[in-house]
Amino acid sequence: MRKLIATVFNYSLDGLLADEGTEFWDFCFSLPENREPDDPAHLDFLQSAYAHMIGRTAYEGIAGSMATSTDHPFAGILNAGRKVVFSRTLKTADWANTIIASGDTAEEIDQLKQGGDGHIVVWGGVRLWQLLMRLDLIDELRVSLFPYVAGGGTRLFDGVPESYQLDLVSSTAYSSGIVELQYRRAR
Q: Rounded to an integer, what distance in angstroms lies between the CA atom of residue 9 and that of residue 124?
């Protein structure tokens, strides 16, 4: 059975996501040393995914920039990869290799996880991550923790179960101060 792995980019020390238009957003994206590392292991992890899951809002943002990008290290991976957008309102998806999942979330994910080994990468957005945590469907959580205290913004863990134990699998510190944390869901 395939594993569902949520990837959380641009996460602050005080537990906030980088909301567009904030100083934290600018910190994450404007300084070259803060961009996501072109770590070969991370690129291989994304390349070898069976599918890439995305919520509607995240899909619209990511598709808008990646579908035409030629220089972002994730563009070729995402453009060629199988993508599943979870939305009850989106009617069409123009990005190549994209299907829309609009049924029962747990059933749709169960179908995706069947039939093989490997993993499915969940790119977000925050409502999708929170729903998957409430349904206890996430097998692993990978967090890019930035050396920044945002002070305000969107909290990833609002509205999730009060008790949600994770076991640390690995941590990798980069010279930029970003720490990549990999957790496995304790069941």
A: 9
Buried b (16+ CB within 10 A) or exposed e, 62-89: bbeebeeeeeebbeebbbebebbbbbee
Asked whether the beta carbons of 120 and 52 are under 8 A apart, the reply is yes
- 26 φ/ψ sector (left φ>0, alpha ψ -120 to 50, else beta): alpha
Burial of 178 (0-12, 13-18, 19+ CB in 10 A): buried
73 within 8 A of 101, measured Cβ to Cβ: no
pTM (2 d.p.): 0.91
Contact 171, 179 (CB under 8 A): yes
Q: What is the pLDDT of residues 89-108, one digit of tens each?
A: 999 999 999 999 999 999 99
Q: What is the pLDDT of residues 16-52, one digit of tens each?
A: 999 989 999 999 887 666 555 567 888 899 999 999 9
